[in-house]
Structure formats: C-alpha cells, structure tokens
Amino acid sequence: MNKKVVVLGEVSEGSLRNVSFETIAAAKAVAGDGEIVAVLVGESVKSFADEMIHYGADRVITVEHENLKNYTSDGYTQALSHVIESENPEGLIFAHTALGKDLAPRLASKLETGLISDVTEIEQQGEDVLFTRPIYSGKAFEKKTIKDGTIFATIRPNNIEPLEKDETLTGEIISSDVEIKDLRTIIKDIIRNTTDGVDLSEAKVIIAGGRGVKSQEGFEPLHELADVLGGAVGASRGACDAEYCDYALQIGQTGKVVTPDLYIACGISGAIQHLAGMSNSKTIVAINKDPEANIFNVADYGIVGDLFEVVPLLTEEFKKLKV
Ligand code: FAD
C-alpha cells in the first residue's frame, strides 16, 4: 500500500543534521510509492527545503515563527500538530535525537497512536512495516509493527543510509502559517558546555576514553587522534565520574547511544552499561593494558598495550596516510 509519510528535518547550528536525510530514506521504506512530506520548523528554515528535496522528499512544508528559533516542547508540538492535522499522514518518521525523543512521545500521545522508538532497520512484510529496535541494553533486537492508526517511529542516527543526493530533483515548497503562542518555556540564551565541533550521536569516528586515561590532560592524545580522523571524543562514565571530562561526552546506557563507523575505546573496561551505548558501532577497536578486559569481547580489533604509547603512534600513522 502507498502511504503519505511526514518526516521532520532537524536544523542545528545553521545546517541540516545528516539524520534528516536518513529519515527520508526510512520514510521511503514505509511509504512504498506514496508521498514523502518533509517539515522544517524554525525561525528561518526555507533555505534548507531544496536539500530535503534533493535527498528524496516530494514536498516540503516550512513553519517559520520567531517563537520557533530554538526548540521548545510547546512550540514544536504546536507547529507539528498543525501540519499533521492538515496533512493527515499515514506515517511519521522523526530522528531519535534529543529533540525527537522529547517531541515524538508528545505527538504520539496527542494523536493517540503508538510510537516505536530507536529504530535501526525497517522492512516490509506483506502489508505490515516491521521496525527493528534494540532491547535489554542492545543485547537483543525486537521487531515491531503498528497495526492500527498512524505508523510513528523515531530512527537511530547513523543506521539507515540516506538516499543518493540528486540535485535535479524538484518539489513543491509550501509555507504554513501557525500561531505559536502560550509557550510555557522561553529560551533566553544557550550556553554550550562541550568543546568539540562534531556531534557525538552523528559522528562517523569516535575516540572514547575511560578511567584508564587517568586525567583531564590524558584526554589530549585522544583529541589529537580525533582531529586527524575528523572524529569526536567520547567517554565512559568512569572517566566522567572521575571529572576527566564533561558528562556531555558520556556514552552508554545513561549517556549517549552512538553507532559510528569506527569506535576506538581507550582505557575502557567494557562494562555492560558502556556497551549498551556503543556495541552497534560498525568497527570497534579496543586499546587496553588488561588482555582480559571485557571490551575485547565486542572489539573487532584489540590492542593490548598502554594507551599513552599506542594512541600517539596511531595518530602519527594516520597523519602519514593523509599526506
Ligand atoms: P574502569 O572499569 O575502571 O576501566 C578502566 C580500564 O582502563 C581498565 O580496563 C584498565 O585495564 C584500563 N587501563 C588503565 N590504564 C590504562 C592504560 N594506560 N592504557 C590502556 N588501558 C588502561 N558506564 C558508562 O560508560 N556509560 C553509562 O552510560 C553508564 N551507565 C551506568 C548506569 C548505571 C545504573 C550503573 C550502575 C553504571 C553505569 N555505568 C556506565 C558505569 C559502568 O558500570 C562502569 O563503572 C564504567 O563504564 C567503567 O568505566 P571505565 O571502563 O572507564 O573504567
């Protein structure tokens, strides 16, 4: 069956987040030959509409308002509710980002429909769309479907390949006027805590440090390696608890869930709570002094050694490859 599916494009720091294109690819898997409608919300977002079309959206609806400059639950719920009411789609696909995790359950509750969150794969089975998602901290996967009502899912970044970009594609761009009012939260200012430019949840390469890094300064070689590889630096909770780095870098069950192409774990033992946030990474390299460390059980490549010797060597070798 062909369905109309609405996706939400996320604009952050003046550009579209890559996961926005992944939502379009996911929507294609749900829509069949139906229509994909992308929604862009913000103060000034029209300039991103063409890019959503080049990645496969058939139509783009922009909702622009001064009260939508920064994300607020109330503002975005009002904007999206208005679009969903007028479009009446059979499917909704958002990103499983901080924004999506906050917004999707609110809308699902308003729509009185189910929500399948943190999806890593989508497939058709007869008339049903099956969504795969991790359970038990990533130790197992379940497949779920929504039989009645709107099909609503959030997708984990870096798991569903975007469609090929095609700049010859064209589509309709419509602005939707919505009154955004009675906001209970007003963002006055945003003070950023992290220093890294690369967003952890979307990074293709992550160099993560654990308690074995031993100090704030111990993270320096990891930053150097991340710079050479164009990656981001992450951490275990052990490192965050020891105040070697900010909690914004924490990866795991109670931190961020990441799926990079390459995850290099340095001085991390591999506790189950840490594995919950990174074990689906495409290639895992572990550097640890202890050959018995649990991290080696999930690693594709293991280096038994002192991270303070191994990491600078890797940085030097990768630098040579770049020349
Ligand atoms: P450790 O377990 O102390 O390991 C340090 C490792 O460094 C050791 O394996 C050691 O051999 C190695 N090492 C030391 N020096 C060197 C060196 N010079 N070179 C190479 N290797 C070296 N943890 C998370 O990470 N994320 C979470 O989200 C999370 N959530 C939690 C939620 C709950 C409810 C609970 C109870 C725990 C949670 N934890 C989480 C904590 C988790 O159980 C572990 O305590 C934590 O992951 C350990 O961090 P670590 O591996 O850095 O430290």
Automatic annotation (TrEMBL):
Residue intervals of the Electron transfer flavoprotein alpha/beta-subunit N-terminal domain: 5-195
Xref: PROSITE patterns: ETF_ALPHA
Cross-referenced InterPro entries: DHS-like_NAD/FAD-binding_dom (IPR029035), ETF_a/b_N (IPR014730), ETF_a/FixB (IPR001308), ETF_alpha_N (IPR033947), ETF_asu_C (IPR014731), ETF_asu_C_CS (IPR018206), Rossmann-like_a/b/a_fold (IPR014729)
SUPFAM superfamilies xrefs: Adenine nucleotide alpha hydrolases-like (SSF52402), DHS-like NAD/FAD-binding domain (SSF52467)
Pfam families for this protein: ETF, ETF_alpha
Coiled-coil regions, chain positions: none
UniProt keywords, alphabetically: Electron transport, FAD, Flavoprotein, Transport
CDD domains documented for this protein: ETF_alpha
Family: Belongs to the ETF alpha-subunit/FixB family.
PANTHER family on file: ELECTRON TRANSFER FLAVOPROTEIN ALPHA (PTHR43153), ELECTRON TRANSFER FLAVOPROTEIN SUBUNIT ALPHA, MITOCHONDRIAL (PTHR43153:SF1)
Protein name, as recorded: Electron transfer flavoprotein subunit alpha/FixB family protein
